[in-house]
Design a protein that fits this description.
The complex is a heterotetramer, with 2 copies of chain A (322 residues) and 2 copies of chain B (334 residues). Chain A has 322 residues and is of the alpha/beta class. Chain A contains 12 helices and 14 strands. Chain A has 2 domains: 181 residues, 3-Layer(aba) Sandwich (Rossmann fold); 127 residues, Rossmann fold, CATH 3.40.50.920. Helix content of chain A is 37%, strand content 20%. In chain A, the strands form 3 sheets. Chain A has a 7-stranded mixed sheet, with helices on both faces. Chain A has a 5-stranded mixed sheet with strand order 9-11-10-13-14, with helices on both faces. Chain A has a two-stranded antiparallel sheet with strand order 1-8. Chain A is globular, with a radius of gyration of 19 Å. With 334 residues, chain B is of the alpha/beta class. In chain B, the strands form 2 sheets. In chain B, strands 1-2-3-7-6 form a 5-stranded parallel sheet, with helices on both faces. A two-stranded antiparallel ribbon of chain B has the order 4-5. Chain B is globular. The chains are: A alpha/beta (322), B alpha/beta (334). The interface between A and C is large, with 54 and 54 residues. The complex binds thiamine diphosphate (2 copies) and magnesium ion (MG) (2 copies). The site of one magnesium ion has 6 residues of chain B, from β4.
Chain lengths: 322, 334, 322, 334
């Protein structure tokens, strides 16, 4: 084990996979001279030269060209600068990247990764702070992964690059500088499997990405109050690992879900609905979702603070269930 | 900024063409025409479902372009994609079966007319999203360049599609990176019910090439020789690594926008007149017969062969089974 | 009351509102000569001349220009041809249209309507058959309405045009030729209110759009089997009328939701989650969602038939709860 | 296709300018410069949060353009929007309060630098989405045309933004409908860390105008007189109903892309040299003093007045309260 930042973990994943497979290449804005807007590609141009490509400000073409390059035998990793910009290339993701394999009867998969830094950071306000994974839960054909720590960042990115299907990789902007232990050597995290981070017996708390770290804090507070929390890191939003969640809820009889995105229509709704459909009998309390209020992300400090999910909000939600 | 080639019409004497090329032209155009007429018939008989857009009247374009392509080259097609698919060399049986929604179709019956594709011949897909192909063709060309092949990619698009933002992003990207992509405009004067000049700010879409520092060439899209020659120059140029271009082929959409279109926006007479004056198939026949480079018998025997192939395809499609319900849940992920 | 088609009902709404308010105008593709791809704008150019505008094939600009025109005092009604194309202008909907009012501190609302014909029709396959309302449930700032019959089509469209907020109006392609009774004279249906279409006591069935009509059939079948179904037509997807649903579930103790969209991440998930959060104690059975399988819409008849929601599938889902 | 105006530099003799215009030029440029320097300072002191992009070095553009606009005309700004907002006449107090995230800000503290807007002066918003403004400005111009005013809308955009598909869709739409919209390119040579020629396929973005049959004009964007005169012609033309255009102003981004940018992609020397040669404010001073149309005292007294206003704005912003938490839930719907 070694301790590195989330950002370095993604960099290691890129280096290892680009060395392993020369079809892998990177395209996005401000990658070559700056190493990506958050430095997450730093140094790659030195080793990989023309396989690291700066694009015009043309997100539609970035994704469309990645799809085309994948169909022609390459394995692109495209960078979306900010996840907020997925709207600009939504058709390419939704109607092309996601559908081509199925709609053309399985002739060729679209083997590519779309990396998208998401979430709140530095009061970046309405158009640079969003968590958008829920949109992609509703799109058949995509895989969607969303690590919460450096080890998973590395392991999921490597798995995403190796996966023959199109994968969206959401990386939270606040996580880039966060340090954590990462296993030495080849480290792959399977796509489609949630992880029981900590066992507990009173309530199951499902979270992911940056919010997972807040959930861990909330669980610590609750333990002191005598509430034993089973923590699940979703890791993959789609395909969603319902088995892990259902078997945890069977044990604990209570379910809470915490995510940074807007609560209405968020991934929490799907998790809740699965449990209400398949394990209602197990439940001893209502299912609680902790998510952002139904507004765009506001700028002012006071408002952003009120908007964001905190360990206290998560703990309060769970206390209300007991 | 590169030099702009002149606007083109065919200049090579017909005697300069080899016989295989001439046969390919005729066979391909007739194959497309008769395929489309068959599709129209079986659509009206209720055997072919979905939204179907015919390529009738535009056969010279796919034919003239594809005569310059290798199997390993790529094309991105449009919603009006049968002609491109045939000219690129797809098997008619699997195409027809696809349109009938059969399990033996090239997309296993999951795609249909608007989503026909045959990767085995480099046909990377029709598209229900107008303008969806520009960026994908650009990406395929990027791959060709990175793989150091001399392959090219052709993005077919309509006059209407030229106003999608994807055109701009792809053209700029392809130009900056000097990618081997041909932006192939089929200007058939109509975007659905709308005459193209009412929504398009330039009379010649090829003029937009200047905004990207690439050549923009215009040809008579109903003259297969003119298309062939213009495409040849530009495709060879792209193979040499000299970058992308726009080739605008002027043509006319003879049939309704889709099969079943009531066509309330134009008169039958207008269409009839264009057809009489410009139909690429009689024009070809007259030219080769006049020049004495092919005989009536040759032409007829080609057409007969095509019709035989087509009948077999039709029979195959009609007798093939619909997909099993289980196929619905298969093939979402690899 | 008079009996007209859904399409005619929308036409009447347009005529009445355009006569009432000269700031209302229409823009979209193939409107002038064809009256819209489904004839739903037929005749408007005769009466309103230059207020009916054919656009280039530029969905991004259609929506962006509508937003700009709204900011400059007009009240555009934009047509999206097929709802499947919302991906092309997703950024304009998501980051501009939805956010401008809040993000700029309430300076000016974006008073516009985006009409989008959705759903399955004629084996139109993967890119012309989709139901996409769930994406917009997750976007604060939008209102989303979705009528199931001619009367609501008229009343909701009139309300949408009068609403100062941006409204998405989804109209199912199969509904255009469907006939129904529409009240004479001014007829407005309030946005944000679901409707109890039929009272019942054993189970609450929530649906909307075309699927509502299938739900009605399913309910008739179930009645014969002795299962009394309370039918709710959601009418507005966002803001979601949870009161109507909760009070019905309190009565019936059972909830089923049926929609044409893909089940995973659909609007059904949110409805289920609200009930699992706020009325779990009332439930006597798991919450059942009937939605499309997790695949793109297939083309072949056999596959599309297997894909689509039917009265039988809805009835089977409900039988399983009893 | 319309005639293309010549590429422009200022030609009017300075004595031809009226004194109010000269004062507006200087006052506005100094106001923007000193506003931005103040913002930079308080950003580094941790009082201004968020992502902040400064307009320093580009003041002549907003100033020269806005001198031709009425309050009722519209502008769509970019992520680098303070200069546009000031020049369009917004109140500095409410602007500064917005950047500090205070409830007295023009967006009640909900927007911040990237989403500053002041509809009361026709400033329809900065935009965090690069290229988001093209289509909205086009729509505002459509409204102006339908309302039969002679108002115009200006869409500011960067060299980088010129490669977004929205540019193309808006330009085509505006040209087809002859809308009174000015596509105003601020070519500051950089798109974030990327020199614009590495991702843009034409050296002069104004050349793209040809693809839409509209005029494309280039001016020295650091010469407020040149900008003013070129903008005047084009804006008057748009007011007369003669349609849209591109005006490309060549400039240079003096500061980092955003406040805090480590600027590892260029040398301090390069920047210093450009600054010395082209800074629009000393250039203006020298010109008017040399021509004897303004005096040093006049300039100084304008600067002093600006600084007083700025200090008041700063004081106002710093002492204003943050928004109440309840404001979070207000103002989502009307
Ligand atoms: C993004 C998008 N917008 C609109 C449509 C609807 N549509 C299908 S074909 C068509 C006209 C296309 O015109 P053109 O590009 O000239 O091609 P043609 O049909 O003439 O071959 C339209 C508007 C679509 N399929 N996709
Ligand atoms: C759609 C979109 N893509 C990327 C970005 C990130 N970004 C913000 S500013 C910028 C550079 C813009 O360059 P230019 O248009 O030349 O404007 P300048 O910053 O030079 O004024 C980029 C890439 C964004 N905000 N929006
Ligand atoms: Mg056309
Ligand atoms: Mg720039």
């Amino acid at each position: 084990m070694k301790t590195i930042t989330f950002s370095q973990a993604t960099l290691e994943a890129m280096q290892e996979e680009m060395r392993r497979d020369e079809r892998v290449f990177v395209l996005g804005e401000d990658i070559v001279r700056q190493g990506g807007i958050f430095g997450q590609f730093k140094g790659l141009p030195d080793e990989f030269g023309s396989r690291i490509i700066d694009t015009p400000i043309s997100e539609t073409a970035i994704v469309g060209a990645s799809v085309g390059a994948a169909l022609a035998g390459m394995r692109p990793v495209a960078d979306m600068h900010f996840a907020d910009f997925v709207g600009v290339c939504f058709d390419e993701i939704y109607n092309q990247m996601a559908k081509i394999y199925y709609m053309f009867g399985g002739q060729k998969p679209v083997s590519m990764v779309l990396r998208a830094p998401d979430g709140l950071v530095n009061q970046a306000a309405a158009q640079h702070s969003q968590s958008v994974e829920a949109f992609f839960l509703h799109i058949p054909g995509l895989k969607v992964v969303i690590p919460s720590n450096p080890a998973d960042a590395k392991g999921l990115l490597k798995s995403a690059i190796r996966d023959d299907n199109p994968v969206l990789y959401f990386e939270h902007k606040q996580l880039f500088p966060v340090k954590g232990e990462v296993p030495e050597g080849e480290h792959l995290v399977p796509i489609g499997k949630a992880k029981v981070v900590k066992e507990g017996k009173d309530v199951t708390l499902v979270s992911w990405s940056m919010t997972m770290n807040l959930a861990i804090k909330a669980a610590q507070t609750l333990e002191k109050e005598g509430i034993s929390v089973e923590l699940i890191d979703l890791r993959t939003v789609s395909p969603l690992d319902k088995e892990t969640i259902l078997s945890s809820v069977e044990k604990t009889s209570r379910l809470a879900i915490a995510h940074e995105a807007v609560k209405q229509g968020g991934v929490g709704a799907e998790i809740s609905a699965i449990v209400a459909e398949e394990a209602l009998d197990c439940l001893d309390a209502p299912i609680v979702r902790v998510g952002a209020p139904f507004t765009p992300v506001p700028f002012a400090r006071s408002l952003e603070q009120a908007y964001r999910i905190t360990p206290e909000k998560i703990a309060a939600g769970i206390r209300g269930m007991m | 900024m590169c030099a702009m080639p002149e606007r083109k019409e065919a200049v090579l004497p017909l005697t300069g063409y080899d016989r295989e090329a001439l046969k390919f032209f005729y066979e391909t155009m007739v194959k497309i025409r008769n395929f489309e007429l068959t599709v129209e018939k079986y659509f009206f008989e209720g055997e072919i479902p979905g939204f179907v857009h015919l390529y009738i009247g535009e056969e010279a374009i796919a034919t003239g372009v594809m005569a310059n392509l290798r199997k390993s080259d790529y094309i991105q097609s449009t919603h009006r994609g049968h002609g491109h698919t045939i000219a690129k060399g797809a098997d008619l049986k699997h195409m027809m079966a696809e349109l009938f929604g059969k399990s033996t179709g090239c997309c296993k019956g999951k795609g249909g007319s608007m989503h026909i594709a045959d990767f085995s011949v480099g046909m990377l897909g029709a598209n229900g999203i107008v303008g969806g192909g520009f960026t994908m063709a650009t990406g395929a060309a990027l791959a060709q360049k990175m793989q150091k092949t001399d392959g090219v990619s052709v993005a077919f698009f309509g006059d209407g599609a030229s106003n999608r933002g994807t055109f701009h992003e792809a053209a700029n990207m392809a130009a900056v990176w000097k990618l081997p992509v041909i932006f192939l405009c089929e200007n058939n004067q109509w975007a659905s019910t709308t005459p193209y000049l009412t929504t398009t700010s330039v009379a010649d879409i090829a003029d937009r090439a200047q905004g990207y520092g690439m050549p923009g060439v215009i040809v008579d899209g109903n003259d297969v020789f003119a298309v062939y020659e213009a495409a040849k120059d530009l495709i060879d140029r792209a193979r040499r690594g000299e970058g992308p271009c726009i080739l605008e082929c002027k043509t006319y959409r003879i049939k309704g926008h889709f099969v079943g279109d009531p066509e309330m926006y134009r008169t039958k007479k207008e269409v009839q007149q264009v057809l009489e004056e410009t139909d690429p198939i009689p024009r070809f026949e007259k030219k080769v017969l006049d020049a004495g480079v092919m005989t009536r018998e040759e032409l007829d025997s080609i057409a007969a062969r095509v019709n035989k192939e087509l009948n077999e395809a039709l029979e195959y499609a009609r007798t093939s089974p619909e997909p099993e319900v289980s196929a619905l849940f298969e093939g979402l992920y690899v």
